[in-house]
Amino acid sequence: MSKQSIDNAAVVKTACVLLGAFVIIGVFSQHDGDVKTAHADDNTSGKHGVTSQENHPSGSLRITDPVTISKAFLACKNLDDLDRVKKLALVDQDAKAAVKYGFSHGCELQQPGKAFIIQDFAPFHGATCIRLSGDPDCVWYPSSLLVKAD
Fold first, then answer.
1. Is beta strand 34-35 parallel, antiparallel or unpaired with respect to 146-148?
2. Can you say how many angstroms the Cα of residue 84 is from the centroid of all Cα atoms in its chain?
């Protein structure tokens, strides 16, 4: 099997997984049919709009809280890449393009049950930056797909 066919198979499989997550997620951070694209410098309360003392936009999570993934989705190092993945999948309704874009920009599929620590929030994007324990860098993930760890 060629590398290209393996890559295409992975894209199709991941697109199918994401389609299931899209149904559960619903609108992510959609408002009036458009994904919000406000940027961090559009607000003044912190790096991405929430200071370390503030709660997660849902009101139940705080920075440094342990969380787990509730549904599979792509996590991206760059917030703009996560926004683009969500737009392709939800607005354009093209899961295969969303997966191809995400994979080509270094996004990785995260599976349910995986544990992370909250490092930052971007409420205008509907995203939370999460990191593995011991890892200094975080990745952006849809906030609606995170649950507080027990």
1. unpaired
2. 10
DSSP-H helix ranges across 26-94:
79-86
Using a cut of 0.90, tell me whether the model's pTM lies above it.
no
Which residue, chain included where needed, has tokens 């149904």?
A: 23
Beta-bridge partner residues of 136: none
Q: What is the pLDDT of residues 76-108, one digit of tens each?
A: 999 999 999 999 998 999 999 999 999 999 999
> Whose structure tokens read 């993934």?
69
Residue located via tokens 């066919």: 5
Q: How far is CA 54 from the centre of its chain?
A: 20
Q: Rg for the chain (alpha carbons), in Å?
A: 15
- Longest CA–CA span in the chain (Å) reads 52
- Domain regions of the chain by residue span: 3-148
The residues, ordered by sequence, that sit 6+ positions from 150 with a Cβ below 8 Å of its Cβ are: none
